[in-house]
Amino acid sequence: MTNAFKPLSAGDIENRIEELRKSYAPEWKFDRDNPDAGSVIAQIFARQLEENNRLMSQMPERYHMEFVNMLDANLRPAQPAASMVIFNYDGGTIMGTQIPKGTRLTAESADTDSGLIVYETERNIYVTDSEIEAVFMTDAEEGTLSPVFGDFDVPQIISGEIRTDAEEEESSLFAEEETEDIGLGLSRHVPPFTLFGEKENLGRSILIMYEQRLFDGIDEPIYIRLEGAEEVINRVQSGELTFKYYTKKGFETFKSVKLMEDGFTFMLIKDKESQKTTIGEKEYSVVILEENKVMIDSLEVQNILLSAGGNSKAPEYVGDGSQELDPGKFDPFTDELAVFNECYIGHDPSFSKAGARISLDFKVTYHENQVRVTAEEEEAELLVIKRKPKKTPYDTPAQVKVDEIIIEYFNGIGWKKLKCDTEYAGLFEACEEGDYKLSFICPEDWQSSESGPYSGRCLRIRITKSANCYIRPAIHTYPTIENLKIAYSYEGRFTAPGRLERIAGTRKEDITACLFSDKSFTVLSGNEYAEDAIYIGFDKKLTEGPVSIYFQLSDNNNQNGVKVKLEYVGANGFTEMRFTDLTEDFTRSGTLMFLPPADMSDMTIEGKKLFWLRLSRAKKQKGADKDVFLPKIARMCLNAVVVTNVQTSEEGDYYIEDVVPNTSVSLGRDNILDAEVWVNEVGFTRKEEMDYLLENFPERARAEYDFLGRVSAFYVLWDEVDSFDRAPHRRCYRIDRMTGKIHFSDGYKCDMPRVTTDVAFKARIRSTDGEKGNLGEGEITSFIGAAPYIESVFNPIRAHGGSNLETIDHALDRCAGIMHSRYRLISETDYIRFCKEFSDSIDRTSIVTGQLIDGSKNPADISVVLLMKDYADGAFSFHRIAALLQKEMLENCELTVSANNLHIVEPIFVDISVNVWAMVMDMDDAFEVQNEVKSVLSDYLDPVRSGGSDGWDIGTLPKETQILMKLGVMRSKAVIQRITMIGHYVDADGEHELDTKDIDITPFMVPRNGEHKVIITNK
What we know:
The protein is of the alpha+beta class. Helix content is 16%, strand content 37%. The strands form 13 sheets. Strands 11, 14, 15, 19, 21, 23, 24, 27 and 31 form a nine-stranded mixed β-sheet that branches. α1 (10-24) packs across α2 (37-57). The longest helix has 21 residues, at 37-57.
């Protein structure tokens, strides 16, 4: 125990002034040898304070102790450390196992006599063999479906089998194998996520149109008519909806999208070839209409119709069946005419447009070719296939021309005559040069054929009649075709798509039948989920309980509370169920515990047939700030429970020899937390009172009977108090935790044990190891006794909050504060002193009146800002004391302060990242300077008091001048050229990253180390 009034010498006081000067007035130099006016004043002050200290220190310490003993106060007990443990089931034949409350777990420690630190579970828990298989979240306002854990099937946009070449197939196979390998390594641990705050969207809103021919034209207009779809048209015009078509490289946007004058027909032009997909026996090209944002509404149309038009284009192929000809100018039947000479004209894009009007425009010129051959040659060649020609007296050349032709197309079985709008058989008979045009309706049964190197739909033009074509000599007048152009048009005729599908969220649906109904139908919509919720799917049914789901919050502070409701899938769908929320509305790490209903059943959601739980917001939150400070979940898992560093003894018997006032009995334990004391009152309590207590308060009274049925012992549960003067009733006791003894009153203020012939009282004692219980992560790994079906146990977070028995010095300060405030909290000093005395885990406190941490203001509000000593390890210790601190404050503060006005919060931590440019005198010192600068910054910006650092008051941030002054210690090795300071923090307005000069400092802010960088330059 130290002296409450430790005297300080003038030198000590001057040294303290010098330390404070560096922080508060660095520009002033305190010089003892050559003092200026300020130094002289400081020295005078030091000598006057030295005398006052000397006089105060002359008061005997025992006077101080006796003074505070007037309060009849006890030392506050040690506080147990607490942590969370997770049990891993060993996968046995049963579906789970019970872990009762008080199960003992251990961690090895060299600081205890037994070599172990013992922890006890705080609640009953059923360790289930079920595992979390899938987790996803939905947002009603944003319309998102965000995957959190598990593989979710996203529907492919295009149905059917897409044609690919061998290289693409090999690449696709390789990609599938790679994906499978990744999936095999998937862990059952749910990754971190923000509760109700994930923005990734798995769902999509797409309308998919399939057509066999109309979407094939390149640089040709495609017409899509949307009837009764004003909102759809408006969103296309505004860019919210986009038309795309499918190619070998994926979906491409159209080269041009234009709304026609009718106001509901779009003309689209693409510049790449479409990739086909095969559905059944039909091949389709695909055009989609996709929502660029997440949809939260739905759009309808009355009808969708398609059309197309083809600009005049040269044929893809012209040939005679064996060789390819120049499409720009060619002789369709060669220069030597003969029956069955033929010409093939191929243009698959146009000839595939069944029902369209195809037009062929071309120019025809004629040329002559004299064919001469000897009679012997002619006779030999035609001996078999022609009649013997008539003898002519003169050798006059015969005139040969194309008398008749036939135009045919291939229908998959053979070549069939094509019907044109005009008769074409004698097209070349008159041998008149000029421009010609043929048009026809494209047949439905036109199929691809092979002609030389070309594969596709072709026209075949053959000579069926040509007089004198085999006579020699002859003059063959043969046609030449130039500038052949092929075009197609549906002439304003529209047709329905061959197939129509839509994707709404993650669901794909065939809506082709809707095209033939008279009603409007939905073409675009979002997810069907109508709530902000997180869905948790289990692979097996949860059969027994209580089951716990652990939510470990990240180290981010001041997370908003979110009230939730829990539902399970029963016989009638999702049904609300009761649960215990130990996360306190997700403001702290903790568990949700519940008893699984017997009718829990599986359901297929998002393609997964699992046993689902749904955790949704109890009420919808709206507004721009609804997602500020949402809980950030670092870990979510099953089978977790809180453990505390508590050892509960078996109930022991205690005896007294004589009934004397102020009796004290040793309990035989150190670091006593509390005790359950049952005092034997047999013979000193009337029968009527015993019967009354047994009937009305069975939890506080119990009787033992002899073989004759008479009461042999009657035990009543007594209560612990700090002072007998303030005891609420007569059955009370005190525990002196320094000596480990229990004290009873003198029989006047309170009762005392009186039974000397039997057990005087029974006690079950709870004790702790105090600070020794603050163990690291993963150190609690063993059981005391058997643990069937449990494979392993571990603590995912370090144990926090353990403290030893209150010291005498601390008790003296606390009692002096009590005398000062008289058990009432009125001034700011009273509140700060109360917090300091409440827990040694609190480093400093700030009281902010009339303002909350979110910036809202109310004169009745009081915000108590606590900076914990172990803030760097998370908010676990803060949450361990916050609720109890608020409760005790409310018992001592003014009546006008309610629980709704008293707020216990952590500071807003501002991560200060300092970039330092330092010029070293010697490059060999570069690494040393870097490390030393970072060390100085790290120590200086730590907000907690440590060593020679005073930390930082809540509501203050460092300035550049202070940092530069602190880095002045480096001047012997480096010159600090300049620094920049960036502050990162999260408040009610969101996340911020600013120069510290631009930060609007609030009373809740405190600095914290960020990422420091040191850039070294050489002189």
